Amino acid sequence: MRALANPVVLRMALLLFCSMMALAVAIFVSRRLRKSLTEEPDLSAAPLSADGLPVHAYHAVIQQLKQQKHELTTQQQAERRKAKASDTLSSTVLANLPTGVLFFNTVGLVRQSNAAARKMLGFASPVGLDVSEMFRNATLRPSNTGIPLSESTVAQALAPAMAGTTAVRGLLLNYITREGETRVLEISVSPVMAEDASLLGTTLVLSDKTDLERIRHDQRVRQEISADLAQELRDSLTTIAGHAQQLACNRDPDFARQLADSIAKEAAQLDRTIGSFLEGAQAATAGS
After folding, report:
1. Looking at residue 192, what DSSP letter applies?
2. Which of helix, strand or coil describes residue 174?
3. CATH for 98-208, among 3.40.50.720, 3.30.450.20, 3.30.505.50, 3.40.30.10?
4. Which pLDDT tens digit goes with each residue over 224-271?
5. Is the pLDDT of residue 37 over 80?
6. What share of the chain is helix, strand, coil (3-state, %, to 5)?
7. So what's the architecture of 214-287 in CATH?
8. Nearest 5°: phi and psi at 96?
9. Which of 109-118, 204-213, 230-239, 278-287 has the lowest mean pLDDT?
10. How far apart are CA 29 and CA 51, in angstroms?
């Protein structure tokens, strides 16, 4: 009893007990390790990949990625087909437009043009030309755009639009083709801006106003001719009326004969004037 009450003996007993428990745990663990090493592996279990995942899960991820790639490729092909169809439609519409359309890139050179523009300008292909080269034989005409005719070239009048500052619409000019044909063209220029307000290029729309200007010129000439004809008719009628009044009041046969001859001459002149006017009107109608 005295030995058990001794603290040194108690400590030694406790240390011995802990040592025995540690030895028992070590023996148990070593036996479990020896058993796991000596046992054959279960081939029916799912094999593992290098990353520790089951192989079937690894293959499933690969198949899913392949499926996503296929769907993305299909979507890209569909988008390309839509873009190609849109480009084809735009090209077809531009090719059949009676209005000329040109597209300039950011450096001011023609990048694309339709058939109507090539026909109006007289170029087989204006691609690569700038405004100064294209309209070097053109002069400005009076228009309602507010651009003064003191501008020496068409390029100077179109410079703000080509730079993307503002649009120019309804500009009239006299244009001479390479074959020497004179045409009246109306042009409108608009910059094409991106979403970030950067300049993508410039579109130029051409309209041939030659026939319209010719009709207007013919109308002005006809109006002038009509005014001259009206004045001649008024003068002739005034002369005839005056001679008729004198003839009614005069009793001298010789003077009356002179008055009658003057009336006949004025009537003949009046008939010739009206006949010339009618012939000119018929010729203009047949020519139009």
Report:
1. E
2. strand
3. 3.30.450.20
4. 777 777 777 777 778 877 777 777 777 777 777 787 788 888 788 777
5. no
6. 60, 15, 25
7. Orthogonal Bundle (1.10)
8. -100, 5
9. 278-287
10. 28
Return the structure tokens found at 246. 């004198």
Residue 265 is encoded by which pair of tokens? 């001459």
For tokens 């307000």, name the residue: 197
Looking at the DSSP assignment, which residues form a beta bridge with residue 187?
A: 171, 206
At 202 the pLDDT is: 92
The answer to whether 87 and 81 are in contact (CB under 8 A) is no
Q: Which residues pair with 206 in a beta bridge?
A: 100, 187
Burial class (CB in 10 A: 0-12, 13-18, 19+), 206: buried
Residue type, 28: F
Q: Where are the beta strands (DSSP E) in 97-181?
A: 100-104, 110-113, 138-140, 168-176
**Closest by Cα among 161, 254, 241 to 199:** 161
